Amino acid sequence: MNIHEYQAKAVLKSFGAPVAEGVPVLSLDDVQKAVDTLPGPLWVVKSQIHAGGRGKGKFVEAEAGEKGGVRLAFTKEDVLANAKQMLGHHLVTAQTGPAGKQVNRLYIEDGADIDRELYLSILVDRESGKVAFVVSTEGGMDIEAVAHDTPEKIMTLPVDGGVTEDDASKLCDALKLEGTARTDGMKLFPILYKAFTEKDMAMLEVNPLIVMENGHLRVLDAKVSFDGNALFRHPDIVELRDKTEEDEKEIEASEWDLAYIALDGTIGCMVNGAGLAMATMDIIKLYGEEPANFCDVGGGAGKEKVAAAFKIIMKDPNVKGILVNIFGGIMKCDVIAEGVIAAVKETNLAVPLVVRLEGTNVELGKKIIADSGLNVISADDLDDAAQKIVNAVRG
Ligand code: ADP
Ligand code: MG
């Protein structure tokens, strides 16, 4: 689960991390009050969307102006003018896709005098099997380019159950922190680690972490995602969920405990097992079409869950055909077949459907489909299934 920058900063602040004063606003009426609580003389108006790259983003609407999604303002009037331009408009960044994301919230923040912009993130490092810090002196808006062109400027430091003095010291060295900044760093790294582990974060990214002109460190941007499997332990974090940032189909899928990710192709997929789902998507691409979604119904799905998955897939207006690819292990092919048929009848399915079943009770499953009288194309293996659905959508 992702949260907004201002929420992430509030979480980090509760652990003692240095962040700027700021006020989130949801409507233009609240901007004046927000700006009056901050000292100036520099304010920053920041679009709150669940995507990075806002500073270099572009708004779709002309009335939003030429500037990006993070704007500096030197007068209160300027704050208001920028807020007016940004709220309600669609911001396109390298992470949003071409349609962009509507900006429904702004964060008005105290401006900082920046000396240096650094990069810091914490994640679970699969290679070492540990929590690792990733840091670079080259922080700010071009970290992707740094990772691509000069990867030697990025250091990864796995830590073992906590940040030791020695770890903190290594991080300070890598970030070239001295004096006040070094003292701040020695305190900050253990704080960030504590926030990461206690709140079961999957990723914490501070880009940039800044050294200010007065020598102190400050968390200037914060992007946090939480491990969905641990959310039950954190009702306070669940409260922060902003469903307007999520795909409606993905929310419904999560209520059915389905692993569903919306994509932009035309072939809907319903598969059990993430590996088989990936293979199914690959083979659709191999035959020249694109998957409309990733969907893993899991190993133990019953008739109702299969029907629910079907309906969610059909809600996507781009879907021109559906490929069901199920390996019946714990799940039985006859149960799948019944679920598929129930869903086809209920949704008045108007697009071609190819079903490939394999495993337990496969003959019975195929018979149920054949006897249903519905227009379902049966396939024998993955190759056959992919070709059949691609041919069917191409007419
Ligand atoms: P994004 O990563 O989505 O582009 P950031 O929050 O990192 O958004 O902001 C982009 C840039 O804007 C930062 O790298 C920094 O240079 C500047 N910036 C952001 N917040 C402030 C602030 N409070 N004071 C001064 N400059 C800021
Ligand atoms: Mg940033």
Helical fraction: 25-40%
Largest sheet: 6 strands, antiparallel
Number of strands: 19
CATH architecture of the largest domain: 3-Layer(aba) Sandwich
Mean pLDDT: 94
Bound molecules: adenosine-5'-diphosphate, magnesium ion
For this structure, the CATH topology of the largest domain is Rossmann fold
User: What distance separates the N and C termini?
Assistant: 39 Å
| CATH homology group of the largest domain | Succinyl-CoA synthetase domains
Subunit structure: Heterotetramer of two alpha and two beta subunits.
Binding site for ATP: 46, 53-55, 109, 112, 117
Organism: Hyphomonas chukchiensis
Cofactor: Mg(2+)
Essential attributes:
Dna Ligase, domain 1; Rossmann fold; alpha+beta; 19 strands; 6-stranded antiparallel sheet; D-amino Acid Aminotransferase, Chain A, domain 1; binds magnesium ion; 395 residues; binds adenosine-5'-diphosphate; 13 helices; 3 domains
Structure explained in plain terms:
The two termini are 39 Å apart. Strand 5 and strand 6 (101-102) form a beta hairpin. It is built from 13 helices and 19 strands. The longest helix is centred in the middle third of the chain and has 20 residues, at 179-198. With 395 residues, the protein is α+β, with helices and mostly antiparallel strands. It is elongated, with a radius of gyration of 25 Å. The strands form 5 sheets. Strands 8, 9, 10, 11, 12 and 13 form a 6-stranded antiparallel β-sheet that branches. Strands 1-7-2-4 form a 4-stranded antiparallel β-sheet. Helix 5 (165-174) crosses helix 6 (179-198). The mean pLDDT is 94. It folds into 3 domains: 21-110, Dna Ligase, domain 1; 114-238, D-amino Acid Aminotransferase, Chain A, domain 1, CATH 3.30.470; 248-393, Succinyl-CoA synthetase domains (Rossmann fold), CATH 3.40.50.261. Bound molecules: adenosine-5'-diphosphate and magnesium ion. Magnesium ion binds at residues 207, 221. Residues 20, 44, 46, 52-55, 70, 109, 111-112, 114, 117, 140-141, 207-208, 220-221 line the site of adenosine-5'-diphosphate.
